[in-house]
Amino acid sequence: MGSINPQSGTQLGAGIVGGGMGEGPGPDVMAAATLDGNKVVSSDGEHVGKISDIMLDVRNGRIAYAVLSEGGFLGMGSNLHAIPWSALTLDTDEKCFVVDIAAQRLKDDPGFDKDHWPTMADAKWGESTYSYYNRQPYWLATHEVVENDPAVRLEALDSDPVVRPREH
């Protein structure tokens, strides 16, 4: 399952459910390309689309969003939605993702089209998107983990040569 900050209950990654380990590296570590085209089901069981892209926050080394393609035919006329990674659960038994939102609420999200992508690095847009899916933005959750978890803070201090105590 995704990492959870025990103090806040914030899930930092996608959850994983199902029968466990398969052959190869999955399901805990996978190539992003293997997820393209995976079916996505809403929390109320309706097929709502497929994963078309995995968007990376390159500077922070995190998955920012999964892009869901809804409707259309062969990519034409489809509506796209940026789904917070933490709003998804990979179901290895059913070989699909489950998004933690009702189908109608997803359909009510205007999304975007392939020729008019939002500025995904814009914090206001990101906060609005994460809020729509009732999730805390990953960049805030990551910061909170470091601030609220003494073990993480100490580990960060020990690995930072600027603040590491001198050995005598």
UniProtKB/TrEMBL annotation:
Pfam families: PRC. Residues 28-102 form the PRC-barrel domain. InterPro entries: PRC-brl_dom, PRC_barrel-like_sf. Gene3D superfamilies: PRC-barrel domain. Residues 1-20 are annotated as: Disordered. Residues 1-11 have a biased composition (Polar residues). It comes from the Bacteria. This is PRC-barrel domain containing protein. It comes from Paraburkholderia madseniana. The lineage of its organism: Bacteria, Pseudomonadati, Pseudomonadota, Betaproteobacteria, Burkholderiales.
